[in-house]
TrEMBL record:
Pfam families: Ric8
Assigned keywords, A-Z: Chaperone, Cytoplasm, Guanine-nucleotide releasing factor
Biased composition (Basic and acidic residues): 413-422
GO BP term (any one): G protein-coupled receptor signaling pathway
Disordered as annotated region, ranges: 390-446, 480-503
Protein name: Synembryn
Length: 503
């Protein structure tokens, strides 16, 4: 392929050749040609067409080679105004700080400012969207740059950008004016909000278990206050992911909001955000598509919130675990939120089933008896085994764990009437089984008893012997293991023990 000849034809405005090249050329060769053409610095209408063509070609991962070289990236960055100088000179330097320059460029104040002219503003917002998307990719792929952005005030900067997209009107530092008649968020603003939330997640996801300083806590609380508006304006999915990554003690801002006449409340605390999260979780439970990715963040967020805030736990428990009245069905049967969550407790995905079980366990104040009462022992066994609670211990009382009040979980009258007939394994009232001895004579009963004794004796003699792993990785009887090897002496001891048992 004569690349130089093709480029000369394009410069001369031979659009027919360009179109033929697009439709009939090998995509990888076309990418090479277009990059060479763009580097010639020709300013013409075909430059825009070339860039659009490259954008389409970049969706095919098989032909990304010509587009991800240092020289190609620097050329595109220069055209986008993200860097200055001669691309060829910068590319020749193996230690180029190209990515650092992009971070510095993207975090300038221009990210937060929009031109007054309407047409220019629309163009700027389009450019801003791609700047934000590029910033997300860089912070996601380069952890050291993500940390740098966080250290250099990235959270405050991006919070301000988020406020700008939401057009927040603040009453005070962490309380805003919510206008019920406000128009819905535009598509362009919504796209930029999503990218900002993704970047914030990239630079804060490691802070969840950390104890922030007073200054950082103030920054995170202001961010949470802005995220509360995201929840109220229905930007829920990425907001939930970000909330689950922030320090837990900073999430109290979601609740410390004055009550309005239409507010959801529990014990005098505003529950509007909690209601939004509950409704979001219910929609995800009903969708049945990509359950783990869609449900795990919101389940974890609700669980941690219930551990930390008594009012949140009371409110969510009222909606998920109402007092038991009808126990004629298994706990996992039905279409209520409780039924769906209990079904997830036996899901094949370990992370998902533990998230669902942990939420219900916390709603039961981590009390084993109460947990089994609502879910049935069969569904509860997995989580109890993981936590070492199969023995049936009561609620957690360690100083490191959450503190729960001692209010009782009083049973309903309907539950008390059938409590003694509930099968603890299935969690429901089972149909009465006929007496197997009914209609048998005394002699037949004695004969059946002798048969059962013989079966028990046979079972005790043929019980499976404990095994271990020898030096070759094979399963062998424990009695034959001597220094990780099976000796003939061990075999004879094992065989003599078996013979003695049979005699």
């Amino acid at each position: 392929m004569d690349i130089e000849r093709i480029i000369q034809c394009i410069k001369q405005g031979d659009e027919i050749l360009f179109n033929c090249l697009f439709f009939f050329s090998c995509p990888q060769n076309l990418a090479i040609v277009l990059m060479r053409f763009i580097r010639t610095g020709v300013k013409c209408r075909l430059l825009r067409v070339s860039l659009h063509t490259l954008r389409i070609l970049s969706r095919d991962k098989k032909i990304l080679g010509p587009l991800v070289t240092d020289q190609a990236l620097l050329t595109l960055a220069k055209l986008a105004g993200l860097t200055t100088g001669d691309a060829s000179d910068e590319a020749s330097d193996p230690d180029s700080d190209f990515y650092d320059n992009i971070i510095a460029s993207l975090t300038e104040a221009k990210v937060l400012q929009c031109p007054a002219d309407e047409e220019a503003s629309d163009q700027y917002e389009d450019v801003q969207f791609y700047e934000l998307r590029l910033m997300f990719l860089i912070t996601a792929l380069r952890p050291e740059l993500s940390n740098q952005l966080q250290r250099e005030g990235g959270v405050s900067l991006l919070t301000a950008a988020l406020e700008n997209c939401l057009e927040v009107q603040w009453k005070d530092h962490n309380e805003y004016v919510l206008d019920p008649a406000a128009p819905p968020i535009s598509l362009d603003a919504s796209q930029r909000i999503i990218e900002i939330l993704k970047i914030l997640f990239s630079i804060t996801y490691s802070t969840h278990r950390q104890e922030p300083s007073d200054d950082d806590a103030a920054i995170y609380r202001h961010l949470v206050a802005t995220l509360r508006l995201c929840l109220m304006r229905k930007c829920v999915f990425h907001t939930v992911n970000l909330l689950s990554a922030l320090p837990l003690q900073c999430l109290d801002v979601l609740l410390t909001v004055p009550l309005e006449p239409s507010s959801e409340q529990c014990q005098g605390v505003n529950m509007d955000c909690v209601k939004t999260l509950l409704m979001f979780m219910e929609r995800r439970l009903e969708s049945g598509d990509k359950v783990k990715e869609k449900l795990t963040p919101v389940l974890n967020l609700l669980t941690e919130s219930c551990r930390a805030h008594r009012e949140t736990r009371h409110y969510i428990r009222k909606h998920i675990l109402p007092p038991l009245r009808d126990v004629s069905q298994r706990p996992e049967e039905g279409n209520t939120v409780k039924n769906r969550l209990i079904r997830l407790m036996t899901h094949l995905d370990t992370d998902l089933k533990h998230c669902a079980a942990d939420l219900i366990f916390v709603l039961c104040k981590e009390n084993v008896r109460r947990f089994v009462k609502y879910t049935g022992y069969g569904n509860a066994a997995g989580l109890l085994a993981t936590k070492g609670l199969l023995g049936g211990q009561g609620p957690r009382t360690s100083s490191s764990g959450p503190w729960y009040s001692s209010d009782s979980d009083s049973d309903t009258e309907e539950y008390r009437q059938v409590r003694d007939r509930i099968n603890p394994v299935t969690g429901r009232v089972e149909a009465e089984q006929p007496n197997p001895m009914e209609g048998m004579t005394e002699e037949e009963k004695e004969e059946e008893a002798r048969r059962l004794i013989m079966l028990f004796n046979k079972l005790s003699r043929s019980v499976t012997q404990p095994v271990g792993v020898d030096s070759e990785g094979k399963l062998v009887p424990v009695l034959g293991l001597r220094g990780n090897s099976l000796t003939e002496e061990g075999k004879s001891e094992s065989e003599s023990d078996n013979d003695a048992g049979e005699n």
